[in-house]
C-alpha cells in the first residue's frame, strides 16, 4: 500500500502540471482501478498529448514506476500443461460438424466479459466536470457546475466556472448571496471584496498587451516617413551651389557646416571617444549620429536657411528695384477702392455663347458624318429617291446631310413586292425603276434632311404624304454610293467612323431615280 500511495501522489502532481488544472483524486483512482498496466497506459494516452514531450515523459515514467506485475507470494509455481484426452472414434462426427463446433468455440473464446465503468465519483459528481483555473465563459447552464447567481440585468445564468465578477455578457456585477450580504454592509471588508471581484488579472493583462500594441502601431505610423526614407549618397548633404536664392554669407556658412560633417564622418579614428563600462562589462563607442543624417532635421542648417534681419541678397535686390522704380516715391498709405465683383458664370456665358453655331444654313451645308440605320427595302428606296419621307417615333434636331445604313435583316420577297405595288399606286402612272438588289449591313448613301415635322404639321403641309408616324423626316437630294461600305449600325442617329466617313465622301455616287 505505501508504494501505491506514493504512485497515486506522483500521478496527481504530474497530471495537474500537464493538464493545467488540479487533477482530482477520482481521476487517479479511476486510472489505477484498471486491472492491467496496458489499460492504464492506454487511458493516459487518451487524456494526454503524445506530441508533447512532457506528456510523453509522464507516460514513460508511469510505466517505469508501476513496473511489471508482481508474481504471487510463495515463489513461482510450475504450470502443468493440459492435454486433451483422446476421443473415442465412435463419438467422432463428420467433418462439417467438427468444423461447426470449432467455429462455435472460436466465437465463444472471442466474446469476453462485459466490464462496466462508473461515470460518477464517490460523491455522485460526473467525472467529466473539470474546473479550469480562473474565470472562463461556460454555457453549461449549471448542468455541470454549481450556480453562482443570475445576472439581474441580462438574466445570464452564471456558474462556478464563470465565477463571481462582471457578467460575461453585459458586464454587470454578479456574485453569490453571501458575497452580496458582505457588499451590503458598506464596510472596509466590503470595499476589499468589491475591488477583488472587479479585478480580473487575465483581462488586465490582455488590455495591457492591447495598449502596448496600439502604442507600437501609432509610433510606427508617426515615424514611418523617417524609417522608410531612402538616403542617397549624392543627396546626403545639402546642395549649396545648386540653390540660386542663397546669399554669399549663407553659402559660406553652409559650406563650413558641410565640411564639419564630412570631417566628423570620415575623419581620423584617433579622435573617436570610447567608453569602458567595467560594471556592465562592455565597451561603448560614441555614436556620431550621422548614420541616418537628414538635413531637414539639422537645426544649424535650418537656422542658416532662414532669412535673417538682412534677408537674402536676391530679395534685397528685388525690393530695391521695386522701391526705386519710376519716381522712387512709394506711399504705402494709398487707398485703392475695392474692385467690383463680377459673377464668373456671367463672364463664362458672355465669353462662350457667341461661339455657338446659330445659323441653320451653315448646319445644313456641313457634313458631320451623322448616320441612321433603316430596314430594307425602305433604306434603298430612300437613297434612290423613290421614298421621300421617313417616319420615326422620336424627334431630332438634326438638319443637313444624313447617311443611310441598311440593317442586317434581309427583306422577304413578298414584303418587297407589296412595297413595290404600294409605291406604284402612290406615284400613279409614272414609271419607276426599282433597285435590282437590297444589300444589308452596309452604308448605302446619303440624303439631306430639310425638316422634321410632327404628324399634325406634316398633314397640314403634305396632305397626300406617305408617312403616318408621330414624327416625319422630310428628305431631299438622295445620293447612292456605287461601292457599298460594310459596317454595323446603331440606334437612332449616330456618328460614322472617321475612316468610313472620309471614304464615303470621296466615293462615286449614282444619280437619283427620276419619277
Question: Could you explain how this protein is built, in words?
Answer:
- With 515 residues, the protein is of the alpha+beta class.
- It folds into 4 domains: 2-66, no CATH class; 132-222, no CATH class; 232-327, no CATH class; 360-510, Archaeosine Trna-guanine Transglycosylase, Chain: A, domain 4 (Roll).
- The protein is built from 18 helices and 13 strands.
- It has helices spanning 2-19, 25-32, 37-47, 53-66, 95-110, 177-184, 188-198, 201-222, 224-227, 248-266, 299-305, 313-323, 344-352, 360-365, 378-384, 413-427, 455-461, 498-506, and strands at residues 147-150, 157-159, 165-166, 173-174, 274-277, 282-285, 370-374, 389-392, 400-406, 442-454, 471-486, 493-495, 509-510.
- The strands form 4 sheets. Strands 7, 8, 9, 10, 11, 12 and 13 form a 7-stranded mixed beta sheet that branches.
- Helix 3 runs antiparallel to helix 4, helix 6 (177-184) crosses helix 7 and helix 10 (248-266) packs antiparallel against helix 11 (299-305).
- Mean pLDDT is 76; it is low at 72-81 and 95-100.
Amino acid at each position: 500500500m505505501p508504494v501505491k500511495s506514493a504512485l497515486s501522489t506522483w500521478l496527481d502532481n504530474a497530471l495537474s502540471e500537464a493538464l493545467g488544472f488540479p487533477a482530482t483524486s477520482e481521476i487517479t483512482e479511476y486510472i489505477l482501478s484498471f486491472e492491467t498496466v496496458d489499460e492504464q497506459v492506454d487511458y493516459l494516452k487518451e487524456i494526454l498529448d503524445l506530441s508533447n514531450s512532457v506528456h510523453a515523459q509522464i507516460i514513460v515514467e508511469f510505466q517505469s514506476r508501476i513496473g511489471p506485475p508482481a508474481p504471487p507470494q510463495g515463489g513461482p509455481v510450475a504450470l502443468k500443461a493440459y492435454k486433451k484426452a483422446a476421443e473415442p472414434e465412435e463419438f467422432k462426427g463428420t467433418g462439417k460438424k467438427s468444423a461447426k463446433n470449432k467455429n462455435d468455440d472460436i466465437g465463444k473464446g472471442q466474446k469476453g466479459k462485459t466490464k462496466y465503468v462508473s461515470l460518477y465519483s464517490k460523491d455522485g459528481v460526473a467525472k467529466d466536470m473539470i474546473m479550469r483555473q480562473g474565470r472562463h465563459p461556460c454555457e453549461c447552464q449549471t448542468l455541470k457546475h454549481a450556480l453562482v447567481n443570475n445576472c439581474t440585468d441580462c438574466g445570464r445564468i452564471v456558474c462556478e466556472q464563470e465565477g463571481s465578477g462582471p457578467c460575461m455578457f453585459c458586464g454587470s456585477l454578479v456574485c453569490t448571496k453571501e458575497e452580496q450580504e458582505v457588499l451590503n454592509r458598506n464596510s472596509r471588508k466590503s470595499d476589499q471584496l468589491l475591488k477583488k471581484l472587479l479585478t480580473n488579472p487575465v483581462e488586465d493583462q490582455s488590455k495591457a498587451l492591447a495598449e502596448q500594441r496600439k502604442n507600437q502601431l501609432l509610433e510606427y505610423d508617426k515615424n514611418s516617413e523617417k524609417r522608410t526614407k531612402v538616403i542617397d549618397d549624392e543627396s546626403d548633404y545639402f546642395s549649396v551651389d545648386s540653390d540660386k536664392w542663397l546669399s554669399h554669407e549663407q553659402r559660406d556658412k553652409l559650406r563650413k557646416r558641410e565640411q564639419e560633417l564630412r570631417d566628423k564622418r570620415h575623419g581620423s579614428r584617433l579622435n573617436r571617444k570610447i567608453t569602458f563600462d567595467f560594471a556592465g562589462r562592455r565597451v561603448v563607442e560614441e555614436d556620431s549620429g550621422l548614420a541616418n543624417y537628414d538635413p531637414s532635421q539639422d537645426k544649424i542648417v535650418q537656422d542658416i536657411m532662414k532669412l535673417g534681419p538682412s534677408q537674402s541678397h536676391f530679395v534685397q535686390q528685388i525690393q530695391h528695384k521695386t522701391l526705386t522704380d519710376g519716381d522712387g516715391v512709394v506711399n504705402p498709405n494709398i487707398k485703392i477702392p475695392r474692385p467690383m465683383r463680377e459673377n464668373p458664370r456671367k463672364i463664362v456665358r458672355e465669353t462662350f455663347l457667341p461661339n455657338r453655331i446659330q445659323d441653320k444654313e451653315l448646319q445644313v451645308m456641313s457634313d458631320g458624318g451623322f448616320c441612321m440605320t433603316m430596314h430594307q427595302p425602305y433604306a434603298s428606296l430612300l437613297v434612290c429617291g423613290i421614298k421621300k419621307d421617313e417616319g420615326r417615333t422620336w424627334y431630332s434636331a438634326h438638319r443637313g446631310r444624313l447617311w443611310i445604313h441598311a440593317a442586317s435583316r434581309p427583306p422577304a420577297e413578298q414584303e418587297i413586292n407589296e412595297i413595290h405595288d404600294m409605291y406604284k399606286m402612290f406615284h400613279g402612272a409614272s414609271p419607276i425603276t426599282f433597285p435590282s438588289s437590297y444589300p444589308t449591313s452596309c452604308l448605302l448613301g446619303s440624303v439631306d434632311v430639310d425638316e422634321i415635322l410632327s404628324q399634325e404639321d406634316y398633314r397640314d403641309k403634305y396632305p397626300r404624304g406617305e408617312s403616318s408616324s408621330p414624327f416625319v423626316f422630310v428628305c431631299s437630294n438622295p445620293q447612292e454610293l456605287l461601292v457599298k461600305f460594310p459596317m454595323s449600325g446603331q440606334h437612332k442617329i449616330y456618328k460614322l467612323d472617321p475612316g468610313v466617313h472620309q471614304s464615303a465622301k470621296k466615293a462615286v455616287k449614282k444619280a437619283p431615280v427620276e419619277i
